[in-house]
Amino acid sequence: MLAAVITKLKDIQKAEGADLIELRLDYIKNLNNKKLKSMIKHSKKPVIATCRKNGEGGFFNGSEAKRIEILKNAANIGADCVDIECSSDKKSIKSIIKNKKNAHIIVSYHNCKETPINIKNIYNNIKKLNPDLIKIVTNANSVTDNFGIFDLIKTANNEKRKIIAFCMGSYGEFSRILGIIFGSRITYASVKEGKESAPGQLTIDELNNIYRIKKINKNTKITGLIGNPVEHSWSHIMHNAAFDKLDINAVYFKFKVDKLKEFIDYFRGLNTLGFSVTIPHKIEVMEFLDRIDNKAKEIGAVNTIVAEHGKLAGYNTDCDGAVKALNQKARLKNKNVVVLGAGGSSRALAYGLMENNANVTVLNRTIKKAKSIADDFGCSYGSLKNLKKADYDILVNTTSVGMYPNANSSPIPAALIKKNSIVFDIVFNPYKTKLLRDAEKRGCAVIPGIEMLVNGNAMQFSLWTGKKMPEQLAKNKVMNYLKNASHQN
Ligand code: ATR
Question: How many CB atoms within 10 Å of residue 415?
C-alpha cells in the first residue's frame, strides 16, 4: 500500500493517489486534541498517526510524556494505525498496544545513519512486543545494506509477521518499491518533489505513474539500471511505460551500485529479466557474467545483461544504438570521426564506426586507455590536446563531462568545435548538453544522446521480453517528463 506522508495539513488534498495518509504530527504546529480529532475525523483515507521523535528523523520538541499522550489520543480518536518507536519506554509501548481500541499498532525502528549488522536482533526485540506491524527503516550507505533488509522481510513473511521495511538514502531508493514485491506492506511517498520527509523518498506521482506500484506483486519481474551515479537516468521512464503499454508484469528500477560483484551475486537468484549497465560498470561487469555475446566480447564492454534460463548473459546495444542515431544525420563511410573518451561507451562507438568504414581517432585524458582501443580496433588515438590539430567531419563525446548536474561543463572549449561539422553527445541529461549548445552556435548539426538511448533501450527491451518496444511512446514519456520545469536540469 502507498502512504502519503503529510507534513502540512493543506497537503492532505494532494494525497488523492495514495491508499493511506501518514499524519506526521511532529511537523504540525500548535497541535492540540481538538486539532488532532479534526484531522483524523476529516481524513478521507485511513490515517497512520506518527509523532516522530528527534534522533529518528523526527521534529517533536515536547516532552516524551506529551508525545506518548498524543499517540494514545490518536488511537482513542480513531486513527487506523499508530506508529510508536521501539526506542520509546517499553511500558508506554505496552500501554499503547493494550489500549489501542481498533487501531493497528506499528512499532518502528529508524536509523538515519546506517544499517546496523545486528538488525535481526532489533527485529526480534520488536517481535517480543507483538505489535500488529513491525517497521524497520535504515539508511543504506552501500547497495548491500538493502540485502539485510530484504532478508528481514523474508524472515517476517516466513514467520507470518506483518512488516514494513526499506532503506533510506540514494543507495536504498529502489528498496522502497522492491520491498513491496518481497512482501513489505507499506511504502511512503511525498505529495510532491521537494516535500520529502526522508532521503530517497519518491513522490506519489512517481510511484503510481512511473513504477505502477499498485500493479506490482510477488510475481513482478525485476529489471533496472546498474550504475553510479544513476540519478540522472531516464531509462526507468521509458522501460516502465513500455511494460505498462504491453501489459508486461515487470518493473525497471534505478540501482545505484557501489559493490558490483555483490549486487550481481544477490540478484542472479531473483526473478529478473536482466539489467542495463552504465558508468562505471560496463567493463568490470563482464567478469561476473556466465556468457558474453560475441559482439560485446569484441567491443570489450557490456551495457545489457539478459537472464537466460538461470544464467546471466552480457550484450552490447550501445554500438548499434549509436550507429543508428548517427545514421540519421550522416553516412559514416570514409568520414573522419573524433571520439572523445576511452571508456566502455567509447569502445562501443569506435567498434561501430570502424565496422561502418569511418576513419576513427580516439582522444582521451588518459592516453593509455585510448591506445588500448586503437590497438584493439586499428584506429588512431591521442590525448585530448590533439583535438586542436584534428580535422574531422563528426565529433562524438563519450566522456561523462557535461552530464547532470554539471550541465555547464563541456569536454572541450567551444572554439575547438569545427564549424559546420556534426556533433553527437552520448550524454542525454541535459537534453542539449553544453557541447551541443556550443556546437549549434558554430553552425553544426547536433545529435542529442536521447537518440542513442531510445535505440539502445529498444534493443534491450526486445532482448528481455521478445517484444518490440513502443519507441515513440517511450520517447514521448521522457519528453513530457522534461516539460516539467523541475526536471529541466
Ligand atoms: P563508460 O563506460 O560509460 O564509457 P567510463 O568507462 O567511466 O564510462 O569512461 C568515462 C570516460 O570519460 C573516460 O574516458 C574518462 O577519461 P579517463 O579515461 O581519463 O578517466 C572520461 N572522463 C571522465 N571525466 C572526465 C573529465 N573531467 N575530463 C576528461 N575526460 C573525462
Answer: 8
What percent of the chain is predicted at pLDDT more than 70?
A: 99
DSSP states along 191-249: SSTT--SSTTPEEHHIIIIIS-TTT--TTPEEEEEEESS-TT--HHHHHHHHHHHTT--
Question: β-strand 445-447 against 422-425: which pairing, if any?
Answer: parallel
- CB-neighbour burial class of residue 386 (10 A; exposed 0-12, middle 13-18, buried 19+): middle
Predicted TM-score (pTM) of this structure: 0.92
The span from the CA of 71 to the CA of 107, in Å, is 12
Residue 457 has pLDDT above 90, yes or no: yes
C-alpha 46: how far from chain center: 29
Which tens digits make up the pLDDT trace of 203-215? Answer: 999 999 999 999 9
User: What is the per-residue pLDDT for 196?
Assistant: 86
Q: Is 274 helix (H, G, I), strand (E, B) or coil?
A: strand
CA of 339 to the centre of ligand 1 (A): 12
**C-beta of residue 360 within 8 angstroms of C-beta of residue 374:** no
Which of the four pLDDT bands, split at 50, 70 and 90, describes residue 473?
very high
Could you give the angle at the alpha carbon of 128 between the alpha carbons of 125 and 132, nearest 5°?
A: 105
**Alpha-carbon gap, residue 332 to 315, rounded angstroms:** 23
Residue corresponding to grid cell 542495463: 276
| Residue 191 contacts residue 178 (beta carbons within 8 Å) | no
CB 410 within 8 A of CB 387: no
Identify which of 372, 396, 400 to mutate to test ligand 1's pocket (most ligand atoms within 8 A of the CB).
400
So what's the pLDDT on residue 488? 45
Is 224 within 8 Å of 275 (Cβ atoms)?
Answer: yes
- Ligand 1 centroid – CA 120 distance (Å): 41
What is the chain's Cα-based Rg?
A: 26
Residue 487 has pLDDT above 60, yes or no: no
User: Which tens digits make up the pLDDT trace of 129-180?
Assistant: 999 999 999 999 999 999 999 999 999 999 999 999 999 999 999 999 999 9
Nearest CA to ligand 1 atom 11: 399
Q: What is the three-class DSSP state of 362?
A: strand
User: Active-site residues: which are they?
Assistant: 110, 135, 282, 318
Indicate the SS3 state at residue 286.
Answer: helix
